[in-house]
Amino acid sequence: MRRLFGSVRSRATLGATLVVVVALVMTGTAVLQALRSNLTAEAGTEAERKARSVASELAARTPYDELSGLDGEAGPVQILDEDGNLVKAAAGLRWINGTATDEVTPRPSPSPSPSASAAPSAREDDDGDDGDDGEDEADETEGADDSDETEESQDADDDAPSLAPGETSRQATYGSGAATIGDDTADYRFAALDVRTHERGLLTVYAGAPLAAEHSAVRTALTVMLIGFPLLAALVAGMTWVLTGRALRPVAAIREEMAAITASEDLTRRVPEPATHDEIARLARTTNETLAALETSVERQRSFVADASHELRSPIASLRTQLEVAAAHPELLDLDGAVQDTVRLQHLAADLLLLARLDAGERPVEGRVDLAALAREEAAGRTGVTVDAETAETAEVVGSRGQLGRVLGNLLDNGRRHARGTVSVTVRREGDRAVLGVADDGDGVPEADRERIFQRFVRLDDARSRDDGGAGLGLAIARDVAARHGGTLTVGAAPAGGALFELRLPLA
């Protein structure tokens, strides 16, 4: 399992598929909820329409037996009185649930009370009393009836104070349930509507609309989603796998080429660069730039080792010859020459050690160094070197006094070897930089060679002796030290016609 999902391609495919699956599930759930809600609302609207139709007929004093919509074909319908008793139900209704009552058989309603005008006549036929007594009894009966009607009207008004006789409530209430009409049982959306009649008081009409369409639509949508979503997720996974593999194909080519370069140790080879402008193309270009820098570094190291071996071979061979001659003929020992060769070896070894430290990235010891004072100290022990008056200005920099002294000493030694008469040193400020200049009155440096002289073991005058010319490491060391101190070292033409070396360092 770890190996299966250990590649970027596998993780990208899995991540994309999971995102799509989560999005599909959330979208599908929202769609099903919206579909169910809309269809349920439509069923509720249909149920309210049926209930309002029956309520309108009741408000118009239509007898129960003549009400339309109670044939059972329009769905379940119940009519309840104020006490919640069933007074009328749709034909064929056998079972219902989800309304105020589960009764399906209406209860017998009490006979209506006689009218006030018929009461006296009945009393006269039965008792044979005179009209006055009948009128009195009628008045009492009428008063009692009025009292009962007033109390009933008051109760009705307490239940539905906003409805007048013949008026139907504006808002319906909804609920869901089921009902059996004939032999068919189904789910329904019920709407309840209140209506105040003239003779029957407050009635509540329950009418239902079937939810079969809602269930069918939801089942169909769910079936489509259960079939389509896995197919869509599989399609996304396949497309992601293919596209990711195609996108990572250049990376595989880069990896194979890097492996071949590592195995062959041939730093001249380069990885293929895609013709695109994306991150992989930039990675390939950066990799090739790194390989080029590595090749340059390796070549430089090899050249450095070869040159160092060559430079060390001459003084070692000379010293060995002198020692062998002295061993055979002590009287022929050239002691001064042996000391010179030993000193030369010592200086060369010190230069090579310093270069190795600089190449390893060794940072100089930080401290404040006054370039003007340093220039006077270095120039004091050398003949033919004059210090310009501008060095009286203080120019402090941060760095290693020993390494900066080594730079100035190398520049002064180089100037003395090429000057005809004198070498001048100047120190001045230029903005946030301290500038130390070393100029000679020699032949100068040709413009084409002004960068080459800073390479290691480079001598412009191949004919001069090694004793006079040195090993060709002084200027290379000076530039490397300047770079480590955040500065620069350049060469140009001096006012006297010779070479002018300028060391620029940030002021402290």
Task: Describe this protein's structure.
With 508 residues, the chain is an alpha+beta fold. The chain has 3 domains: 29-108 and 115-217, no CATH class; 267-362, Helix Hairpins; 365-506, Histidine kinase-like ATPase, C-terminal domain (Heat Shock Protein 90), CATH 3.30.565. Helices cover 51% and strands 16% of the residues. The chain has helices spanning 8-59, 119-127, 131-159, 212-264, 279-328, 335-359, 371-380, 401-418, 466-469, 474-484, and strands at 77-80, 86-89, 93-97, 173-181, 184-196, 202-210, 368-370, 385-387, 396-398, 423-430, 433-440, 488-493, 499-506. The strands form 3 sheets. It has a 6-stranded antiparallel sheet with strand order 2-1-6-5-4-3.
* Helical content band: 40-55%
- What is the mean pLDDT? 79
Q: Kindly estimate the percentage of residues that lie in beta strands according to DSSP.
A: 15-25%
Separation of the first and last Cα atoms:
60 Å
Shape descriptor: rod-shaped
- Give the low-confidence spans: 111-160, 462-467
List keywords for this structure.
six-stranded antiparallel beta sheet, 3 domains, 13 strands, alpha+beta, 10 helices, 508 residues, Helix Hairpins, five-stranded mixed beta sheet, Heat Shock Protein 90
Question: Topology, please?
Answer:
Layout: H1 8-59, E1 77-80, E2 86-89, E3 93-97, H2 119-127, H3 131-159, E4 173-181, E5 184-196, E6 202-210, H4 212-264, H5 279-328, H6 335-359, E7 368-370, H7 371-380, E8 385-387, E9 396-398, H8 401-418, E10 423-430, E11 433-440, H9 466-469, H10 474-484, E12 488-493, E13 499-506
Question: What is shown here, in short?
Answer:
The chain is built from ten helices and 13 strands. It is an alpha+beta fold and 508 residues long.
